[in-house]
Structures are given as C-alpha cells and as structure tokens.
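2024-03-11 09:14:02 INFO worker-7 job=invfold-0412 stage=load source=structure_tokens
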C-alpha cells in the first residue's frame, strides 16, 4: 500500500514538473460574417508566440521583393514564418450575464490547425467580448466585436475597405502595414477585404505547394497591425486570383506548381470558413445593405470569345444578385467586387467586367445597377485609388487602392480618363460613412493614404 501511494505521489510530481505544451494564438482571431444575430469566430493555433523576424532587406521597386532570398529555404526559418500545432481550443463570447461557449474543438494539420464556430441568437447592436482558450496550455486571447443593427435601425454606420496586400510590400518589419493601424484608430463598425489577401505567385517564397501556401497565410495574419485590428473589428472577405491560385486564373484544370484548383479552394476555406455560398448579402440597419460577389468559382475562361454565354458570375449568382438588389429596401446598396466593373482598366487586362473580354456581361451589370436607386460599387484588384463614373449609366465605382505605397503600380498618374473623378496611384484605404442629417440619409466615400490622411471625399444624398 505504501509503495502504491509513493508511486502515485511520484507520478503526480512528475506530471506537475512536466512543462506545458507551447500553444499560442499568434495571429489572434477574426470575427467574420457578422449579422444582427450571429457571428463566425475563426482562429489558428501555433507553437510560436511570434513570427520569425524579417531578416532580408527588400528592393525599393513596386512591388517590393526580398533581396538574396533563397526560394528553397526551410519554412521553419523563412521570414514571417509561424509553425502551427495540433491541440484543442474553445471560443467563448459574452455580454453581461449572457455567455455563449463552443465545445472543445480539435485542430489538426489537415486543416492547418484552424478552427471556427458560428454563434447564433445574439442581440443586435451589441458589444460581445471574445475569449479563445487552448485546452492543454490554458493560453487565452481576448477581443471584442459588435453585431449589426436591425433592418429598421437608423444608426450611423462607418466601415473601411482595403485590397491587395503582398507580404514584402510591408511598411514596418514588426507591425506590417500602416493602414491597419490607421483604420483601427477610426473605430469602424466593420471591415471588408476585397481580395488578394495573400499572393501565392510572388517570390519570398513562391507558394507552389500546400505548406508554402499556408505559410503565406501564417505570415500575413501574424503582422502585429493586423492582429490588433482584427481583435476589435469584424470583417468580411472575398477572394480573387492571387489568394486562390495564380494571376488571372479562370481554368479550373490548371495548377500552380503542386497546388490544384481544388487545393486552392480548400486553402481559402481553411481561412475563410463560409457556411454557405461564396456570394452573400448582409444588412446593416435601415440605410445599408452590402453584397459580396464571387468572381472566380463560376467564371468562363478569360480567353473565350465574348458573348451572351460568357460570364464571371455564373447564371445562378446573376439571378440571385438581380433579385436581391431589386427586393432590397435599404436606403444605400453597396456591391463589393474583387475586380472592377466600371474601371477604366489597363489595356492588357482581360479578366474583369471593365475589359472588352467580358463586355457583354459588364454592360448587363452596369445597366441593371443603374435601374436601382442609390447603388454604388467598391472593388479590389487595382493597385491605385480612384473614383469613376460610367459615362453611359452614371454608376459610381470606388477603388480603395493597395494597402501600401510600395504595392502601387499598373497605371500612370497622368492618365486621367473621362470616367475619373479622382485618381491617385498610391496606397491607402477607403472609408464609408452613412449618416442622417435632419432625417436625410447621406453616404460619404473617403479615400485615405496609408497614414490615414484624407486625400479625397465624395458625398451623396439618397434618392428617396
């Protein structure tokens, strides 16, 4: 009996002395797909508490690239790398005495150590505290988000938009991109990222296999400015070509190195785990409804001859878009597209509605949108900031510009076209505010530089 007791005590002492497993939430978490009653919380579990330091110098070109970078170096030592780890975690959100908990969720290498949970039955226009906890180490990280207002709520709304972020176009080797700190200081209600969140097909390293593609997400998500921002601002995301597979991808039989089309979709869904179709719409009170369209999964080949059968959206999405836009009673309606619909765009481009290669569907889109009151387009993909108005339909489009100055390219600052109301070939972001002055709904689009300084603004009143 004494021997058994002694062995038990020894075992307890050994277990007590055993170091806890290293588990960290290095990239924080993201509150996604927020509605007036639900939110999707996402995270990834790591074994490093911070990413590998940036040790390579970079070029001053647009975009920037690392100098003397070994494309074959180990991912364990590459700049920005963060190793994931298997384990269990749970999400808790709370507001006062109302507490919602997920079950313990296993994270595995199969899904790149990611986990997500959809919370329902939430209150509208309500602040929720978020805690993510790992089981073995007890590590925690906390943040917050606010749910959307109900459809009859006339509250003011403020959100921000950005696009096109390549790791090596960073502003700061510790924090990453200045736009995220600038946006964070504005305390927006939500944020929309309109595609090219990462670039698989650019050096530093090029991602021609799944582990390297996953590295791109680890490195981007772990920039300190992004972590701090996403801990307090909910977001919506749409994908484009570079964060799906490669530049201008339209042929689903193509691959990039060892990454197939289906691999690219799985990688995307690991990081943006939507519960339904990739195209969707969200209501933010009485005065705003947003649409996020999918531009890669349903498109025809870019090289196909243009005509009624050539499409970016696909038949089902086109019907859904037209129907939901016409049914909406929101004061302002904003269509988010990963690629331009108005433009103008570069002559050599052929993968969007502003190009002749998709002109038939583009003409339909512009005409359809012009028949609906108070519709505006916000697009990604273009590496410059602009506000354009289509000469035929008078539909307005706003391009946020890339997240850094060193990622701006593709247009000549002196090439001002008749459609342009504003043109700036540099980085920054877009802010949108919806208010009611003396009962009249107004919407204001503001372009900012990377430091958050206003460089252009356009204001519109509703056509009630």
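2024-03-11 09:14:09 INFO worker-7 stage=emit residues=464
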């Amino acid at each position: 009996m004494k021997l058994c007791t002694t062995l038990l005590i020894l075992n307890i002492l050994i277990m007590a002395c055993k170091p806890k497993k290293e588990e960290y939430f290095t990239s924080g978490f993201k509150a996604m797909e927020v509605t007036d009653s639900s939110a999707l919380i996402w995270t990834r579990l790591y074994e490093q508490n911070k990413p590998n330091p940036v040790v390579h110098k970079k070029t001053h070109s647009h975009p920037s690239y690392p100098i003397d970078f070994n494309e074959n170096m180990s991912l364990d030592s590459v700049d920005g790398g963060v190793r994931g780890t298997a384990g269990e975690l749970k999400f808790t959100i709370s507001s006062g005495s109302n507490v919602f908990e997920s079950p313990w969720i296993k994270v595995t290498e199969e899904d790149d150590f990611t986990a997500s949970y959809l919370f329902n039955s939430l209150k509208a226009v309500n602040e929720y505290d978020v805690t993510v906890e790992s089981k073995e180490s007890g590590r925690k990280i906390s943040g917050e988000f606010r749910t959307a207002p109900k459809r009859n709520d006339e509250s003011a709304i403020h959100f921000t938009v950005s696009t096109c972020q390549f790791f090596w176009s960073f502003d700061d080797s510790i924090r990453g991109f200045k736009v995220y700190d600038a946006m964070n200081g504005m305390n927006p209600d939500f944020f929309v990222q309109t595609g090219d969140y990462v670039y698989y097909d650019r050096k530093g390293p090029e991602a021609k296999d799944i582990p390297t593609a996953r590295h791109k997400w680890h490195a981007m998500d772990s920039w300190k400015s992004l972590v701090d921002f996403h801990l307090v601002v909910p977001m919506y995301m749409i994908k484009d070509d570079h964060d799906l597979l490669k530049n201008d991808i339209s042929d689903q039989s193509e691959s990039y190195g060892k990454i197939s089309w289906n691999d690219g979709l799985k990688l995307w869904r690991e990081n943006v785990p939507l519960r339904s179709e990739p195209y969707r719409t969200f209501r933010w009170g009485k005065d705003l409804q947003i649409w996020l369209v999918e531009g890669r999964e349903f498109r025809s080949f870019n090289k196909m001859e243009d005509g009624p059968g050539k499409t970016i959206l696909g038949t089902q999405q086109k019907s859904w878009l037209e129907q939901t836009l016409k049914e909406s009673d929101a004061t302002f309606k904003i269509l988010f597209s990963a690629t331009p619909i108005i433009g103008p765009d570069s002559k050599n481009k052929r993968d969007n509605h502003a190009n002749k290669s998709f002109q038939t569907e583009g003409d339909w889109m512009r005409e359809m949108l012009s028949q609906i009151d108070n519709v505006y387009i916000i697009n990604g993909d273009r590496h410059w900031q602009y506000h354009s108005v289509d000469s035929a339909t008078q539909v307005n489009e706003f391009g946020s510009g890339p997240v850094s100055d060193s990622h701006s390219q593709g247009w000549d600052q002196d090439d001002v076209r008749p459609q342009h109301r504003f043109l700036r070939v540099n980085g920054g972001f877009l802010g949108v505010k919806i208010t009611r002055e003396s009962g009249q709904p107004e919407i204001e689009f503001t372009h900012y530089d990377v430091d958050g300084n206003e460089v252009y603004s356009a204001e519109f009143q509703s056509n009630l």
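2024-03-11 09:14:09 INFO worker-7 stage=report msg="The mean pLDDT is 96."
2024-03-11 09:14:10 INFO worker-7 job finished
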